[in-house]
Amino acid sequence: MSSVRRIYRLLVPLALSLTAALPLAAAAQAPALQEGTHYQRLKTPQPVDSGDKIEVLEFFSYGCPHCADLDPVLVGWQKALPADVQFRRVPVGFGREAWDNLGKAYYTLEALGVEARLTPEMFTAIHRGQTNLASPKTFFDWAAGKGLERKKVEDMFNSFAIAGKMNKANQVAKAYSVQGVPLVIVDGKFSTASDKVGAHANMPSAINALIAKAKTERSKK
Q1: Domains and CATH numbers, the chain
Q2: pTM summary value
């Protein structure tokens, strides 16, 4: 029995050390992002609105099922967002009235301070509940059911401020030549998407790698 115990005492620390080394080994073997494959460098970089911070933009629409699938991944990623990085969503319409309305719904929720809480529920209502939230009336009723004052939601949705934000969002999407969503732009110069990096789950590591690359390039200026 004593010999078995001695072997056990020897094997357990060895097993623990090997287990601890696995994440490091996996990280060391993880392939680096390849320009042209996992991300694109924009031919015409765009100015950012984040000043000294690295700007990360997600072009999206509530009407996009892939955006709905990516949403919880990005929500988790944002929880560890560094202080020198600014994340911002940009809803796009692609000339569709329905998607423009969904973009205005996004900015309405943002203006009322409930976007972070209700965005996941918007995606769920649209893609699982088959609720037509692109209809303003349906959106107002839905928002009221979530505890918001219906008149306040309606007034905000129909305001010049929200219309202006949506118009600007579409202009920004045009400047970046956005053809599909979800699309992530890092620091006005790098673009990537889930299909570029293999899966939605790979997006956080890809975005972080591009943030690091952007920081390095900024430091050389």
Answers
A1: 40-219 (3.40.30.10)
A2: 0.85
